[in-house]
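During the second half of the funding period, the structural biology subgroup turned its attention to how the target accommodates small molecules. The most pressing case was zinc ion, which had performed well in the primary screen but for which no bound structure existed. We therefore specified the complex as follows and requested a full 3D prediction, including the ligand pose.
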Amino acid sequence: MNGLVRIVRGRILSFRDDPRLTGASAHRLIEDGAVRIENGEIVAAGDARAILTGAPPDAAIDDWSGKLVMPGFIDAHIHYPQTRVIGSYGAQLLDWLQKYTFVEEQKFADVSHCEAVARFFLDELFRQGTTTACVYCTVHPQSVDAFFAESERRGARMIAGKVMMDCNAPIALADTPQRGYDESKALIARWRGRGRLEYAITPRFAVTSSEAQLEAAGALAREHREAYVQTHLSENFAEIAFVKRQFPWAKTYLDVYARYGLLGPRSLFGHCIHLEESEVVALARSNSIAVFCPTSNLFLGSGLFDKKRLDEASVRVALATDVGGGTSYSMLQTAAEGYKVLQMNGQSWPSLQAFYQMTLGNARALGLQHRIGAIEPGREADLVVLDSRATPAMAHRMESHEGDLAEELFVLMTMGDDRAVRQTYVAGRAVKAG
Ligand SMILES: [Zn+2]
């Protein structure tokens, strides 16, 4: 790949800002455009004719004329050990964990199982056009090693961490405050900043961590300010009641994390559904990120995310699948379900805002907007090629389309899935299998 110039031609669509705040000037569409890629980076993007004229004769040219070429999707919260519990019937959060997830996660004691699932998981993300994800592994350090090793082999920008969990879980999945700290620290030393990899300190949620373990997680966050923190917050009423019993001194669920220094601009809180007003204020003040996981929230019957309330309070928001509580790896399907959740709350979500969120919006939430999330010179060449006529029903629907981009994007998110993803590029390499 070194030295090779690759040109990806198509309808280049990228965001420069949040359309909710800056309207039509937030995006740029070049109908006959092209991206020039060298050494895994975008070096130019513009009119196809100009880019092709300047290309060396031996450049590889991928012609996707008529198809949308966008930055690769970013998934801000997903569990790679849950690929075999996705679609498990009939339980809400706490029972679902006991009955399905905690059983499945025990298999990750076996390294070859970790490696096989990591391969499947990355294949599947790429098939769906997702090029970066914030990933929960299991309590086993080998689950993190396997995931990072496979991500590194594929040149993907990934964020992941070992789950810390020392109570209210099966013995086989429990670490201790000291072990959780030591193992996380060793993983940070081994993987963080290596190639495109970043580490997330990952106490699963307050229910499964003792005060001593949360203290250890807070120490890790203080000692490694470059690392992320990821956990769950206020997903389900039974969970919230459990947390209040376990930490009787806490006024709110978020208080528990705040006490141990786990809030901040690199802290991702999955769900954030049933928030008290003081929690919204604390999320905003600390620049923490609330992660909207619509398919999971519907599937586990957890509740409806109130995006308008968080937007108005200036809380940073990201979008995620939360597989395997979530039911689809597709960020398109995730956006479609997000739209429906907001509809149930009397809110709306224009398609341009949804596509901004899946790309630059999530990149900003992760503080990675200078590396990914946009098609601009200097960004890493993670791209997705989308076909808004991918299925007979989509093609039929698009016959009444009058050239409006917002409408086309809305059809893509409402009806699209992996079939609409024609190709995915990771650091300039085509990676979509099958
Ligand atoms: Zn989750």
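Two results from this model are relevant to the next phase. The two ends are 22 Å apart (CA to CA). The CA atoms of residues 89 and 390 lie 30 Å apart.
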